[in-house]
Amino acid sequence: MCAETPDYKNTLNLPQTDFPMRAGLPRREPEWLARWDRLGVYDRLREKKGRVPFTLHDGPPYANGHLHIGHALNKILKDMVVRSQQMMGKDARYIPGWDCHGLPIEWKIEEQYRKKGKNKDEVNVIDFRQECRKFAEGWVDIQRSEFQRLGVAGKWENPYLTMNFHAERVIAEEFMKFLMNGTLYQGSKPVMWSPIEKTALAEAEVEYHDKESPTIWVKFRIVGTDDATLDCAHVVIWTTTPWTIPSNKAVVYGSDISYGLYEVTGRPEECWATIGDRYILADNLALDVMTKARLDETMYRRLCDVTNDDLAKIKLTHPLNGAEGSEGEWDDIRDFRAADFVTDTEGTGFVHCAPSHGMEEYELYRDLGMLEQVITYNVMDDGSFRADLPFFGGKYILNRKGGEGDANKTVIEKLIEVGGLLARGKIKHSYPHSWRSKAPVIYRNTPQWFAAIDRVVGDDQDTYGKTIRERALASIDRLVEWTPKTGRNRLYSMIEARPDWVLSRQRAWGVPLTCFTKKGALPTDADYLLRNDDVNARIAEAFEAYGADVWYQEGAKQRFLTGIVDPEAYDQVFDILDVWFDSGSTHAFVLRDRDDGSEDGFADLYLEGTDQHRGWFHSSMLQACGTRGRAPYRGVLTHGFTLDEKGMKMSKSLGNTIVPEQVVKQYGADILRLWVAQSDYSADQRIGPEILKGVADSYRRLRNTMRFMLGSLHDFSEADRIEPADMPELEQWVLHRLAELDTRVCDGYTAYDFQGVFQAIFTFATVDLSAFYFDVRKDVLYCDGDTVERRAARTVLDILFHRLTTWLAPVLVFTMEEVWLERFGGEDSSVHLIDIPETPTAWLNPELSEKWAMIRRLRRVVTAALEVQRTEKVIGASLEAAPVVYLADQAVKDVLEQMPFADICITSDLTLSTDAAPSDAFTMAEVDGIAVSFVKAEGEKCGRCWKILPNVGTHSHVGVCGRCDNALS
User: Fold this and answer.
1) How far does the chain reach from its first CA to its final CA, in angstroms?
2) Cβ neighbour number for residue 451 with a 10 Å cutoff
3) What is the reported pLDDT for 188?
4) Do residues 144 and 136 touch, judged by C-beta distance below 8 A?
5) How far apart are CA 687 and CA 672, in angstroms?
6) 427, 213 in Cβ contact below 8 A?
7) Could you tell me which of 345, 341, 319, 344 has the C-alpha nearest to residue 330?
8) Largest alpha-carbon pair distance within the chain?
9) Lowest mean pLDDT segment, chosen from 138-142, 200-204, 469-473, 865-869
């Protein structure tokens, strides 16, 4: 600029905004939380009338411990669902809840007792329950604050708690429906049992970890066949649970397996086999068994086949049969028969059966009507053998810390002593562990209360089937929309194959099984359970007023039974309900009973991690099918687990955990929310420092887009607005893209495709807007006077502002509020109180879109050609150029001549030609029919817009071009 040229900077329409480049989210987000609390945003949204309700029912987290990154993923996903549904015109409700009963809290209180040297068994049960309640209340408050800090909106001041008195009443009422409809029964069968926690566990309370177990090959002597070849030979079994050998009652074989009789002919020094021993083994496994017994192929021979007829006449004795001091405990002949579950892929081809500790064996002998002969009660609730069991009384399967006890070692030593062991070893295998204590579990036969899922319910709610299983399977296919679709298969296969539901737990902190059994009656007797509506009503009324603690008060039995039946004729049950029954009943006391529940008592969506196919989705389905005849939900969305950046499971010991609180302190909650939106939740999600840096970079780019719009709209008013029909083509093209994107966004939110929604918006904002439209229109916005082009551009920016803020508000709740308040900062203003604006379909213009797709392709070649010159320092900016663009197609030239292609390419001038391009002209292989020759712009540089034009300096205002002279005038 010449010395005498005025400084025209103050005459430009430069962006004006206080919206900062740096977000400062960790500091500022709490301010917006306080604002929303003051405004009562959630309740104000409920005041909007005439809207279709949408209810996402919250799967209750456990009130125990600070949030982990999985909690954050889950709650943020839920919040994005609720907010997006609300902003698309629904009445989207969200009542957060907590699971408050159960073993984890008992475990914490017991830990406190142990530190104080206090014995839980000496504490009054009601006092103990009150301590559990207080513990849960404390963690509800902590977790509530942590969830709210993530920007999750909901009815936080009135959540649902499974320990609220009304909830406890309804849980008991729901249980009593099973009591009254006949699906409740008491049975004795093997269930997963935690010796450390002394309670039965549900499948959902179990996780699988690698465990090293002792493995043994044990000899059962054959007797009484009257066949000299077989008598005194041995059937060999293999097991990874030596502690079950004292409870053995049978051995089974496979009727379709090839067996042979093998004789030992030689032996090494250290070996438990004896020369002359004969063993029946599956032929496919004989080599492996003999190798484990340290016998090579020169040390044994196969004598003959052993047929099914041979097997049918075999009788077996237990290896401890006749052992000195055994007191006849194992002297009975063992049952020996064929079974379908025996294979010859592992072991010996024979399976030792302890039906008290194995489900397959239990079911085999149940179906044979032989349970009385084969069920044992050798293992106590703490995992020790009963005190009077010969040799093994008082030995523990697990020690008190969950490690290997002395039972396996003692059993193996005894088998060696009596000559019953052929080989032993160790195996590392996947084994069930309690997810709370992390200790291994066992299968143990105990009396438990079950819900029969194949028994006719008889409640006249048979639209989807007569039994719980039938109703559940029908609901899965006929009533529920699965996201992703694979969720359907997981739950269907689980429910299709599952056994009856174990409802009882032998603990103290929970809702009791509110039932009574008749003294002297058997569980199979019709009058064993007291089924009385008046008794049930008394219980429900007391629970509503005083909570479930009344069940444990002195005189409770008399309180509930006196005047209806003789209290002395009945025993009170003190087991508590499986906590999955608690959470499975939430549809009743939340969706059905609350004024802000749902109109029909069913949820539009349940959303949890994929592990809940065996947890909350599963228990809720069974519970509702037993009480309401169908699934309690119309939709189920599942997400994966969280892993570190390398795809490893997070672990404190590995030091790779990501704590939500730390992310929020460093970056802000919006960055965590953006990570969720950018992730494919249907798979496992990775998170770590580098990933979060990438998310923060995406956020920064999006923030810059919003800042540009705010700056350019600082004094925009309705007087500046013009109709789309009066706009230049470029603005009409932006409106077309908006209309396209509006469909993509709303369809994506409807399908819960947050990754797809955000990616589409982000690409639009950074590629279509920042890198193209804003780049092209900066000149008009900054330098034009009151022109149609500038009015059109600002009208489009206003339209963009309203779409982008509302489209992104469900994801970036804090940032979009900040953006919104920059323009609409009233005391009662919030972006979260408005809906996504309707976008006219009339804006769609496919022909214009195709035309501008071509123009942008051609522009890419021009800008690439200029970038070469910039790189070689021939020019410093594209406005120094006036390139010649050679086009192969006259029709294309005609199109470009109808528009300011130089402005679109951000050059001072541009010449279009259909002449043959020079050989050195710039081309791009991926764009046909265009070549570009660089030419420097001629003339002087405008002191205002910086274009280089021949007419600069020929106007009334010094040193400017004609366009700027008009603007200054």
Assistant:
1) 21
2) 23
3) 84
4) no
5) 10
6) yes
7) 319
8) 128
9) 200-204
Arithmetic mean of pLDDT, 616-633: 97
Of 214, 78, 89, which Cα lies nearest the Cα of 608?
Answer: 78
Rounded to 5°, angle at Cα 238 from 236 and 241: 140
Phi, psi angle pair for 280, to nearest 5°: -90, 125
Q: How far apart are CA 461 and CA 675, in angstroms?
A: 44
Buried b (16+ CB within 10 A) or exposed e, 640-649: bebbbeeeee
Q: How far apart are CA 320 and CA 420, in angstroms?
A: 8
> Which residues pair with residue 96 across a beta bridge?
none
Dist. CA 893–CA 884, nearest whole Å: 12
Q: By C-alpha distance, which of 337, 334, 325, 314 is closest to 248? A: 334
| Closest-CA residue to 151 (of 88, 94, 76) | 76
The token pair that represents 935 in the structure block:
């030419």
CA–CA separation, 645 and 9 (whole Å) = 48
What DSSP state is assigned to residue 771?
I
What values do phi and psi take at 574, rounded to 5? -115, 0
Phi first, then psi: give them for residue 609, nearest 5 degrees: -70, 160
Residue 210 pLDDT exceeds 60: yes
The label of the residue with tokens 């029946």 reads 280
In this prediction, residue 104 carries a pLDDT of 86
Distance CA 605, CA 7 (A): 62
User: Residue 2: what pLDDT?
Assistant: 47
What's the rounded Cα separation, in Å, for the pair 420 and 219? 5
Strands 927-933 and 250-253: unpaired
Both tokens assigned to 508: 């103290």
According to the model, what pLDDT value does residue 356 have? 94
Cα 893 from Cα 191, distance rounded (Å)? 80
| Residue 126: partners with Cβ closer than 8 Å, 6 or more residues away | 549, 552, 553
Say how far apart CA 808 and CA 87 lie, in whole Å: 10
Model confidence pLDDT, tens digit, residues 384-425: 999 999 999 999 999 988 899 999 999 999 999 999 999 999
How wide is the angle at C-alpha 367 spanned by C-alphas 361 and 371, nearest 5°?
65
- What pLDDT does residue 522 have? 87
Q: Strand order of the sheet with strand 481-483?
A: 91-95, 53-57, 605-609, 635-639, 481-483
Torsional sign, CA 737, 740, 746, 751: negative
Q: Which long-range contacts (CB under 8 A, 24 or more apart) does 45-49 make?
A: 45/86, 45/91, 45/92, 45/832, 45/833, 46/91, 46/93, 46/596, 48/91
Rounded CA separation 191/357 (Å): 8
Helix (H, G, I), strand (E, B) or coil at 880: helix
The answer to whether residues 884 and 911 touch, using CB atoms and an 8 Å cutoff, is: yes
> In angstroms, rounded to a whole number, what is the distance separating the alpha carbons of residues 775 and 761?
18
Evaluate whether 931 touches 920 at the Cβ level (below 8 Å).
Answer: no
Using alpha carbons, select from 795, 799, 730, 803 the residue that is nearest to residue 768.
730
How far is residue 775's CA from residue 708's CA, in Å, rounded to a whole number? 11
Confidence of residue 1 (pLDDT cuts 50, 70, 90): very low
Q: Which of 310, 411, 280, 437 is nearest to 354 (CA)?
A: 411
**Tokens 């007391």 sit on residue:** 542
Which of 649, 648, 652, 679 lies closest to 755 in space, CA to CA?
679
> Which tokens hold the place of 266?
């030689």
What is the signed CA dihedral for 356, 360, 366, 371, rounded to 10 degrees? -20
Alpha helices in 188-260 (DSSP H): none
Distances in whole angstroms, Cα of residue 16 to Cα of each of 320, 716, 770, 823 = 92, 11, 17, 12
Distance CA 193, CA 212 (A): 19
User: What letter does residue 58 receive in the DSSP assignment?
Assistant: P
Distance (Å, rounded) from C-alpha 265 to C-alpha 301? Answer: 7
Q: Counting beta carbons within 10 angstroms of the beta carbon of residue 637, is it exposed (0 to 12), middle (13 to 18) or buried (19 or more)?
A: buried
Alpha helices in 436-571 (DSSP H): 468-478, 486-497, 533-546, 556-561
